[in-house]
Amino acid sequence: MDEHNFTERELNRIIEMAWEDRTTFEAIEFQFGLKEEDVINIMRRQMKPSSFRMWRKRVQGRATKHQKLRSNTKGRFKSTRQRHVSGNKISKR
Known about the structure:
Blueprint: H1 8-19, H2 25-32, H3 36-46, H4 49-59, H5 82-86
């Protein structure tokens, strides 16, 4: 899938989700239809090379980024910013 099909806001959210430790690639695929390889390609094109290398090193093989490697089945992590993406208003803090 091409990143040109996404709005700037959607691209920013994809990048944000990719950086979040507890957000799996499967969650990104569910929400945006992007496989892990697509997310990696977007990150490669949208980030500086040094930032991309740091991110890849950080997420490669990380259990929390891959649903199958997770040991806890208690539930999923939900970011406080999730409401913003789903269209609900974030309460004033």
